[in-house]
Design brief:
homodimer, 13 helices, 18 strands, Arc Repressor Mutant, subunit A, five-stranded mixed sheet, Nucleotidyltransferase, domain 5, ROK (chains A, B), kinase (chains A, B), 3 domains, ATPase_NBD (chains A, B), alpha+beta
């Protein structure tokens, strides 16, 4: 049969594939013995040992604790992902802040920094600030002996990832902004590779990393800030669509009141449920919660406090948002039939005040019985999802082709496709 | 490496996988020589020859024409899928007709029969009629020496495929109708296996078979009859969702006029663009195009004629439908970013009168530039998509596990998983 006749190229390709399989298994299931890995992957134990040894040489995996399986059998040495040797850096650019998060292979947060910006003002000034944030993060990691193997920048809007350009982001006033080239020009020549991706899609990757291990591999992540976006995970993978634009849910024409939207259209979902709608319903123009120069997290904490003490206007505003959320989420469940919808961004911060009404409206609107079994979850990552997902995205080349990492003990260097 | 150590189970599994690969390649690319197949699949030629011989023995593949590649090299014997030995039977049950289509492995139509029914009246009488249609079709195929290896029934509504039950179909007045058990009880004990699936999802499979070969593997198929449904193909595969309900687009709450819908809600997309909306806008209650006892295809032909002679009311009705279609399709493009949206059902019959307005509204509403490159296509299958897709569905076990077909020359029998 075919398996006896495989040529050298096929063998090399299978080896690389298997290296990635081992690494991804350790990511999804945690520390495991070589014997367990062999069982998991349906590969002979000798093969798995060879693969593990190669990953250890590359500093991607290390020997972990000795596991004792019970009263019989000899103890097994577990292997686990090696932390703190290399990391991915994710940088979210939002309307009023930028955040950098570095994650190592184990998903441990090595760095979390946040700066206040005004993305709508001047994109050159913004790129200066973001480049400085990246440079500081890379330097800080290097000082700790950790190499940043890639940077992924998360922004709202429609993105041409291959070109590194944000084509259009209404709430940022951006049109064809060359984010990657702009950052690269501001960084040192030996800076890590940079990519740019959509914030909601990247956030979905971070959320899936949380709920995937409990068996949720079909989900919609909804992020709420000034804009509203989504990332769709099907069969455990991010749905990109034909040209990478899948998940553009903020402009579904759902609002019968047809409020004008920043995109130039009327009645978009984000005019019903975006942050501006909440603030407009909850407070008059002079109210400090509507002051864009104040930190968003402080303003949301204030809204939480008002809701907690039963402020009628705040509760009515939250109920209105929850209703609008339910309408749009119900529609998305009808179209995609996910196992879960995860609320992120400000929806997560205010989740306990939104969930009951949203759930009721969803159940009323979805055609499938019991909303097709869909769970409604509140993100535990709050405003960090996009930056975390971006950091995971920056690490993906390692998990898909660990052979690209060559590791002479104390000097890691990574070759990535240009 | 691993490939030398594969055990017998793995080898058998690889052989079955490879048999399916060869068969699916012949389906997607047509007749090919063994050498071409080996190149296509990256398998050694000797392996491919063994696989092809096994498929020939099972009567699934046959030797085709001799190909001459040019002035040099010896001529090559092509192999191709064997037609007219076995077939899948697809049966669509719609509100006012049932249609049976038999397709062989080559996708050739061996049978196409249509009966008039009234699905809304009595489900027992309906199942009698459909069972008789199936029995006649199976018998007719048998007389021609063709075995029906499976029957898939396509109906609107939410379906529990494993149980063989339509859970809910508003336009049919069905609730928990056990279609498979009902048909099985009416058919002979040696009748082929029966399954039931959603009409729009099955229609999408048929449409993908048409456009997949030209590279369209991300598409949304929209079917319009009394209800409106969708089937979503991503990466060449039907998206089912977590529990098989993905594509339930008919009840997206898009109509600002909030007309009541058969589902009990208001403002559903199908109240804007379903067949009833078209007929209501196009004609008064007594008009023959609104008479449900007349054949739908004849009524639609009459509407085409009125549009062709410039009847103002008809044109205005079509424009209104086209506008509503554009709104909903634009939303779906934002969410899913497909390469193409294919209009089926009555939208296909009237496509030339709908397309320009629908395209304009789509372009105005989709966030991605040029609607993410999405094409708007009119189905060439008209009202046959669902039955054709169902027939293809019934053939899937062969294409995925050709080893399940055992073929002593003149007596085919198929073992399917129960």
């Amino acid at each position: 049969m075919a398996v006896d006749n495989l040529d050298v190229a096929s063998r090399a390709s299978i080896r690389r594939t298997n290296l990635g399989l081992v690494l991804r298994r350790l990511r999804s299931r945690g520390a495991r013995s070589r014997t367990q890995l062999a069982e998991d992957l349906g590969l002979p134990k000798a093969t798995v040992s060879t693969l593990v040894n190669e990953l250890v040489e590359r500093n991607l995996v290390r020997e972990g604790e000795v596991q004792r399986g019970g009263s019989v059998g000899r103890p097994r040495q577990a292997v686990e992902l090696h932390g703190r040797t290399l990391c991915g850096l994710g940088v979210e650019i939002s309307v009023d802040y930028a955040r950098a998060i570095a994650l190592d292979l184990r998903g441990e947060t090595l760095l979390d920094q946040r700066i206040t910006i005004n993305a709508q003002r001047d994109s050159e000034v913004l790129l200066d600030a973001v480049a400085a944030l990246i440079a500081r993060a890379v330097e800080s990691m290097r000082e700790q002996g950790v190499e940043v193997i890639g940077v992924t920048v998360a922004t709202p809007g429609e993105i041409d990832r291959d070109a590194g350009v944000v084509l259009f982001a209404a709430n940022m006033n951006w049109s064809r902004l060359p984010v990657v080239a702009g950052l690269r020009a501001r960084l040192a020549a030996d800076a890590p590779p940079i990519a740019v991706g959509n914030d909601a899609r990247l956030g979905a990757i971070a959320e899936h990393a949380i709920v995937g291990p409990v068996g949720i591999n079909d989900l919609i992540y909804i992020t709420g800030e000034v804009g509203v976006g989504a990332g769709i995970i099907t069969d455990g993978r991010l749905m990109l669509g034909a040209t990478g634009f899948a998940g553009e849910v903020g402009h579904m024409p759902l609002d019968p009141e047809r409020q004008p939207c920043a995109c130039g259209r009327r009645g978009c979902w984000e005019t019903m449920v975006g942050l501006s709608a909440l603030l407009r319903h909850a407070a008059d123009a002079g109210d400090p919660v509507r002051d864009p120069d104040r930190d968003l997290e402080i303003r949301l904490a204030e809204i939480r406090t008002r809701a907690a003490v039963g402020d009628k206007r705040t509760l009515a505003a939250l109920d209105r948002i929850a209703h609008g959320l339910g309408l749009g989420i119900g529609l998305l469940i009808d179209v995609l039939n996910p196992q879960a919808v995860v609320l992120g961004g400000y929806f997560a911060i205010l989740g306990d005040h939104l969930l009951a009404t949203t759930r009721r409206v969803v159940d009323e609107h979805v055609m499938a019985p019991h909303a097709g079994g869909c769970q409604l979850l509140v993100s535990t990552l709050g405003f960090t999802s996009a930056a975390r997902g971006a950091a995971q995205d920056a690490l993906e080349p390692v998990f898909h082709d660990p052979g690209s990492v060559s590791a002479p003990a104390d000097q890691l260097s990574v070759m990535r496709k240009s």
